[in-house]
Design brief:
Two copies of one chain form a homodimer.
Chain A lengths: L2 H9 L5 H8 L3 E5 L4 E3 L7 E7 L2 E6 L5 E7 L4 E2 L2 H6 L6 E4 L3 E7 H10 L1 H25 L4 H11 L1 H6 L2 H8 L3 H10 L1
Helix pairs in contact in A: 4-5, 8-9
Chain A binds a DNA duplex through helix 9.
Chain lengths: ~190, ~190
DNA sequence: TACTATACTTGATCTAAGTCAACGAATTTA
DNA sequence: TAAATTCGTTGACTTAGATCAAGTATAGTA
């Protein structure tokens, strides 16, 4: 049950078995079928998830009801509706499984307790934030002024697994282009 | 010289005078005229800046030579070419003063030393990252699927000071629209 | 396995916003 | 303070990509 998480911790330099044990004991297993809503639009996020198996998506709806996706978390990654988790305000986004999932869940209270008591865990949190920030900045630069073809080339270079695991419609909503445009571009590549 | 920084620290809950002293002593004053390049495209960022007075911009150039701005730091804010500062890779962006500036500068070594030795300072760094992440996420959602008018309304609501302090051209490059489009929209509001 | 619903593809059309250009205003620099 | 750049505005034109629609394929459900 915890082998993926332990591998993650080892990878991040937390190799002490008791510390690993202490961290793992804060997580509970949750199985969910595809398309389960884990955080609803008006809900405040109180859980951090670690993906053992499957895939989770973060997305919102604009006022015309169109989806805009911002993040896909695959196996071995942490994911939360972080702005809401941090500020404890309504998420204004959805967190949803898009495959049958096996997840490890930790409450916000436990999460911050780990951050405060285990310096190495605080370091992991900092790294998550740093990485999230860097990816977001690259995406802002990357998508600004890119045309549709360049966006698709960007995704092929930077997140090829998205095209393999995620539907065209969702990839298009991540790139900010129409599904038909993505379809046409893929046909020409 | 340090009054703005001390106000910032007080505001963030660092009220102990010796701690404030210790932090301030790591910063040196740098005056710079407008349009000074503080980090060049191929340079690796080794300084964190605190803006006492003036304004700093982060931007890059796409392959057609067009600017894309991602951040403007006014008085009382910290700013760095963070992806480069964190990963110690070439910035692939420019950090530039866009007004006559009075800046406080801290080296990367000193910065991380403060993070490691002063827990409250580590907390500030975490907050900077959290806030940066949240702002970036909102911008990604906000700009995805917004038309030009909605982008302008967004900036009026969320960062009105940009329109007052920054040139139309730079605001347009921040919003990902042509300067002429911004001009036309402003004329109609 | 069959039925239903959703997703993908492709063509035809439309429109928001980009580009180009020209002129006046504002800002820099010598 | 005068000359030289750069910036902002506006009009005419162009185009990338959105929307709409219809047919086909795929996947979820009973």
């Amino acid at each position: 049950m915890y082998q993926e998480l332990i591998a993650f911790l080892n990878n991040k330099g937390i190799e002490n078995v008791e510390t690993q044990q202490q961290i793992c004991s804060c997580f509970t297993l949750q199985k969910a079928k595809s398309k389960t809503i884990l955080v609803d639009y008006n809900q405040t996020a109180n859980e951090y998830y670690f993906v053992n198996k499957g895939c989770i998506r973060l997305f919102t709806l604009n006022k015309e009801g169109q989806e805009s996706s911002r993040y896909f978390a695959f196996e071995g990654n942490f994911v939360a509706a972080l702005p809401s988790f941090i500020d404890q305000k309504p998420a204004e986004e959805f967190m949803q499984t898009i495959e049958k999932c096996e997840l490890l869940k930790i409450s916000r209270t436990s999460f911050y307790h780990l951050v405060q008591t285990i310096p190495e865990f605080a370091k992991i949190y900092t790294e998550i934030l740093e990485l999230g920030f860097i990816v977001a900045q690259k995406r802002i630069y990357g998508f600004q002024g890119f045309d549709a073809l360049e966006k698709v080339q960007w995704i092929i270079k930077n997140q090829p697994q998205l095209l393999l695991r995620v539907s065209n419609k969702m990839v298009a909503s991540y790139l900010g282009i129409a599904p038909s445009t993505l379809s046409r571009i893929k046909a020409k590549l």
